């Protein structure tokens, strides 16, 4: 958005918020309804506005009422959401919803790229529609695919509702996983070998002079054995997961020592600041909303972090556990080392679910395997100007480019990370990222030199 446009949008929002639009509209409607249109229309409007406008004292009372009503509405919405989360659908309802969802996805001729659309054939739909994973979870195909049925633009369109979903609906999940992770040619039974964090010392500081890299981060996702994934977690289970993770953090040592905060206890302003500092998550993603990720919010959601904010654990953000290590520079050696230590500490008291073929299981099939995403926030002003070259390089180096808030690309800061999370060891993926970033920085430096010479 240009800055003029965004100012205009902000101004419009302000006018709406302040009630100006509403008051003016009412006056205009009144004028419209007036049988005998007055000659002096402005006077009419002015008179109407003065009559209908409250005085200052009345205004304060109304403002107060409005605030109270808003709080009440939020509470009611939460209650409604809670109750909705408890409704059990009958098999007939599931069948109906599945057929309707599938039809709308397939009928959409504009959004045709989701992996769900690509791999959910009519035969598979027929076969899977009324099958469920084991009780008491009883996840249907619909529970997994609802986000893709409703959001046709979603690149993947499916989440596993529990670990078993990967097996029960395997003929759908398997090609999606292979496709996303570039493993379509891989015929091995095991797509992800055992964890191998390799030699931590081989991972380095990629930008000791701090010219390009603003920050580095590596994250892992884990889900605790015996619990469904977010689409089917009950309210009680959200709390149980939180309790277990909180307890597991209590034995952290050294630079990993920190404190746990449940989101319900963090005021909105502090939450927003923490999100800005990249140590907290928000609700809001539409696909996740549809898939049931924010049911019972903020129950069971929280964050553990050390005072330096370099080691962070998110609880019940999509996966039960997201573990991340960060640094305000390019020192991946430091980041990687801390991450591995943190994971090992958690593994002492939590058992995470693993699959013999896919490795670590996550709700989103794009994360299975290592679940590892190593990223830098980086500024490469010259290379960024040549988007075609940048995209080609990223493709060649197996890198993914996101905006620095996950979406929007602000101030030319890019989030660059490994694209694949499966089929390679943890070490190999971090190394891929390391080599890729070095190559990008070299390309930027070449452009700098060419610029100076030219
Ligand atoms: P993920 O899927 O790995 O959790 P997201 O794109 O959803 O990543 O981003 C989650 C949060 O992590 C956001 O606040 C994002 O800005 C932050 N983040 C990601 N990479 C980095 C990085 N290299 N440095 C600092 N913050 C980061
Ligand atoms: Mg994410």
Report the CATH topology name of the largest domain: Creatine Kinase, Chain A, domain 2
Report low-confidence residues grouped into runs of 5 or more.
none
Q: How many domain modules?
A: 3
User: Secondary-structure element order, as H and E?
Assistant: HHHHHHHHHHEHEHHEEEHEEEHHEEH
Strand order of the largest sheet: 2-3-4-5-1-8-10-9
What is the rounded distance between the termini?
33 Å
Average pLDDT across residues? 93
Q: Give a count of the beta strands, DSSP E runs of length 2 or more.
A: 10
* Number of separate helices: 17
Helix and strand composition category: alpha+beta
Fraction of residues in β-strands: 5-15%
Note down, in words, how this protein is organized.
The protein is α+β, with helices and mostly antiparallel strands and 454 residues long. It has three domains: 3-49, no CATH class; 91-180, Transferase Creatine Kinase, Chain A, domain 1, CATH 1.10.135.10; 200-453, Glutamine synthetase/guanido kinase, catalytic domain (Creatine Kinase, Chain A, domain 2), CATH 3.30.590. It is built from 17 helices and ten strands. The chain has helices at residues 3-17, 20-33, 41-52, 56-86, 91-107, 115-119, 122-128, 141-150, 165-168, 170-180, 235-249, 268-276, 286-291, 332-349, 381-385, 387-396, 426-453, and strands at residues 213-222, 259-262, 302-305, 311-317, 319-327, 354-355, 359-360, 373-379, 399-403, 413-418. The strands form two sheets. The protein has an eight-stranded antiparallel β-sheet with strand order 2-3-4-5-1-8-10-9. A two-stranded antiparallel sheet has the order 6-7. A hairpin with a 5-residue loop joins strand 3 (302-305) and strand 4 (311-317). Helix 2 (20-33) crosses helix 3. Adenosine-5'-diphosphate is lined by residues 215-217, 219, 278, 326, 373, 375-377, 402, 404-406, 415.
